[in-house]
Amino acid sequence: TPIGRDGKLAKPRQLHNTHWGLVCPAETPEGQACGLVKNLSLMCYVSVGSPAEPLVEFMINRGMEVVEEYEPLRYPHATKIFVNGVWVGVHQDPKHLVSQVLDTRRKNYLPFEVSLIREIRDQEFKVFSDAGRVMRPVFTVQQEDD
């Protein structure tokens, strides 16, 4: 049910923990709509999206086994690979695959909007390239050896 602007509930007006850095905690109108109207933080943007098929092909060429051909008894500790929430395959050496995908994205062969998440505890590698994700820039700093 929608919440009316004249209600005095505080919870819907507060910023959720997962929105910090993406939704501005200070920029909100005064009066009855205070906290109900939210604005993006500075430098945040909404992703446009890119096709997932090139990502899947890229990972297949680097040793990913497609989920239809996966035999759990042969590789019980394989890392699951998800692309846009769909389980597409497994990989035996996820650390190497993640570093290859990350390096490829840093060289601009993959779109910079592609999000990479490796969950070691859950043995999962998640890749997101769909549209509609709120994103913010992350700067990679590398220290040069003198």
TrEMBL record:
UniProt keyword Transferase, yes or no: yes
Parts forming coiled coils: none
Transmembrane segments: none
Top-level division of the source organism's lineage: Eukaryota
GO MF term (any one): DNA binding
GO biological process assignments: DNA-templated transcription
GO cellular component terms, A-Z: DNA-directed RNA polymerase complex
Keyword annotations from UniProtKB, A to Z: DNA-directed RNA polymerase, Nucleotidyltransferase, Transcription, Transferase
Primary enzyme class: transferase
Enzyme Commission no: 2.7.7.6
Family per similarity comment: Belongs to the RNA polymerase beta chain family.
Protein name per UniProt: DNA-directed RNA polymerase
Source organism: Purpureocillium lavendulum
